[in-house]
Amino acid sequence: MTDTAYFRIKLIVFALVSASFTNVYITQPVLPVLQDEFAVDLVMVSFSISGVILGIALSNLPFGMLIDRYDIQPIVLVGGTMVAAAGLVCALTDNFWVLIAARFVQGLFIPALTTCLAAYLAKTIPLASLSVVMGSYVSATVLGGLGGRLLGGWIHPPLHWRYAFITASVFILIATFMAVKWLPKPAKDLSVNKTPVSFVSLLKRKELFLIFLCALGSFSVFSSVFNYLPFRLEGAPFNFSTESITLVFLVYITGIFMGPTAGRLSNRFGSGNTLLLGSGILAVSLLVILMQSVVAIVIGLIGVCMGFFMVHAAAVGALNKKLTSGHGRANALYVLFYYIGGGLGITAAGFAYKQGGWNVMILLSITMLIIPVLTGLSERKQN
Helices 47-67 and 206-234 meet at what angle, rounded to 10? Predict the structure, then answer.
């Protein structure tokens, strides 16, 4: 692969993954606004996020099988078109349940653009460069998550949150057509796996199963914190506006740099040590954001981003380094566990928040960190 082709792949994948994740979190900074506009409670309005996550969780395995058998281009074309179309429905509807249904459809087709691309990279990029490239892939998820939050939070005040969906739909259509036109096919004929690896056999491998659990545990923590952050900041003693809440989400920028950095740390010190370091940073940062101080919360959220994306990038890199086949299925399982963790985390944290407030929710999140810690200890033994 030439340097030009290598750069083009990274650029296209970065654009497509960023566009995909823009759609996932687009309603997060305006959840209180949606709650008032549709007259629903806190847990119900969170379905505008968890509905997407549920869709992603359900469709990951089928798309993981498809990418092990077929070329990336038609999968991306269908996925990108459906995500954009559902986004336009979100922009137009006045019915809360139609909004949730359209968000669910977006979730069903996002794996065509994320899980399938991760498997494509694992089959296309040389092994020596894989950790760093997967780190860049994670950085694209960060930029997309931040972009969606900024669209939802900053476009709403002068116009309306609905325009954020229109912008995101246009963005993902452009990225989709770029990918279909310019993503090269792998040099070898990998479109059909003659001896496909089953999902069950992947789950039976202890070292892979722990990585899948690591995705579940770490994302349950991260998604809980950022999903209920707007409610925390909207209330006393902070009383933030929607624009101010959206500004706080700029801490997400930290993750853009942590993806490639975590890849390099894993190459140098091992994935186990990187997982343990990221988990430690996460734990300390969660304690910091318990403080009733804007400065402490911002510092703590920066640490949460650093720790989470360090864990996430190290886990993705470790997973793909262990594979010789079945990349699509393995990455599908990883993302399945990842979003199951997000969905369960948001739901459980919502009830914890309603019953005990922010502090109880954060303490619940801290207990979940035992999972990435155990994964890191296991990885250290294998290195």
Answer: 160
DSSP state of 324: S
pTM for the complete prediction? Answer: 0.78
Chain center to CA of 283: 20
Angle at 210 between CA 127 and CA 379, to 5 degrees: 60
* Domain extent at residue 33: 8-184+198-377
Residue 3 within any structural domain of the chain: no
Quick one: tokens of 157? 């005040």
Residue from 88, 15, 24 nearest 53 by CA:
24
Q: Which candidate, 360, 346, 355, places its Cα nearest to that of 31?
A: 346
The CA–CA distances, whole Å, from 350 to 50, 225, 296, 321, 355 equal 11, 10, 23, 36, 9
Q: Do 313 and 134 form a contact (C-beta atoms < 8 A)? A: yes
Q: How confident is the model at residue 128 (pLDDT cuts 50, 70, 90)?
A: low
Q: Is residue 86 part of a domain?
A: yes
CA-to-CA distance for 161 and 153, rounded, in angstroms? 7
The three-state secondary structure class of 23 is helix
CATH number for the domain spanning 217: value is 1.20.1250.20
Distance CA(231)–CA(47), nearest Å, equals: 15
Long-range residue pairs from 229-238, CB within 8 A, at least 24 positions apart, any chain: 229/301, 230/28, 230/29, 230/30, 230/31, 230/32, 231/31, 231/32, 231/42, 231/353, 232/358, 233/297, 234/32, 237/292, 238/294
Cβ-based neighbour number of residue 195 at 10 Å: 6
Which three-class secondary structure state does DSSP give residue 243?
Answer: helix
Closest CA to 307 of 275, 337, 334, 340: 275
**Model confidence pLDDT, tens digit, residues 350-368:** 889 989 999 999 999 999 9
Distance CA 296, CA 288 (A): 6
